[in-house]
Amino acid sequence: MIKGFQEFFRDLATFFKELANLCSPRAISKGFTGLWKDVRTDQYRKIPLLLTVAFHLGVLVISIIAPFIMDVGPPKIPEVYTVNLYKAPEEAAPPPPAPEVVKVATPAPKKKVATPARKKVVVATKPVETKPAPPPPVPREKISLAPIRQRLEKERKEKEARERDEEQRRRELEQLRLGYLEERAEKEKVKAESVAEEAEQAALEAERAAVEAKKAAAARIADIYRSSDQSRRNRPESTGTGSDKGGPNQQELEALDRYRARLFRHISPHWQLPELQEWDEDLRAVIVMQVNRDGTVTGTYFEKRSRDSRFNRYVQKAVDNAQPLPPFPIDFNKKSEEIGVTFSPSGLL
What we know:
Elements: H1 2-22, H2 25-41, H3 43-69, E1 80-82, E2 141-143, H4 146-239, H5 250-267, E3 285-292, E4 297-304, H6 309-322, E5 336-344, E6 347-348
Antiparallel strand pairs: 1-2, 3-4, 3-5, 5-6
């Protein structure tokens, strides 16, 4: 018996396991997929399936649009009548008096012939029962639905009026909110425009100051060039002889001045100081570069250092970043030249 129960429970577990496998999403999906493939390939299944789907869709569409097609008005309430189905019985009238019982006796006959004596017969009459007359029918009172309809109409109008008032309040609140948002956006726009104008004005002032600084630097550089040129021009005259053939001539001096101007334009983009720190405008540093004809720098040294070591490091960094330098012009015949450059916070001098 125990073995039989074990086999039964084992078969039951196998059944539920197979049932779970059949009810799994994968098996269901596979079954529907196979069914769809069979329907698509089998013409005899495809036509009934399409007809069934079309029929159900038609019934669904008709059930949805039927209330809109049919003219279904408000329900009509019939007239209401009240009927009193129970009425208390009126006080019953006293019953009529019972009729008197009349005893009729027959006279005794003469004894001519011996005859047996007759018995006395007593005749009694039953009382006649009288039924009370039925009450007259009570007339039915008609109840009009006009007051109820008027009350319902009044309630409907009050509800519509409340809804209109709520809609009007909602629109007013929406208009107020939109007006507030527009006003706020306008203020933000005006503020942004003022900030943009201030930034633009600051940029213009900064650009104007930079242009003025560049003009001043260019004027100082021009003054230095003119002074150096004048000194070079006056130097041969001071000798009085003009027999020094090793000195530069006028053409070489002009070529050197042009090269120095070109060199300044080449180094200026690399001369940048951090803007987070305020630099003293009186800082000056003079660095001398040994430049070959092809623009390579063979050596640099400070002819004059500033009192700020960080400023000196930025000067050296600008010179290193600017290498290689532009080559010498064709009309400058020297193979190398020492060129000094003066650095200040406002630019090159």
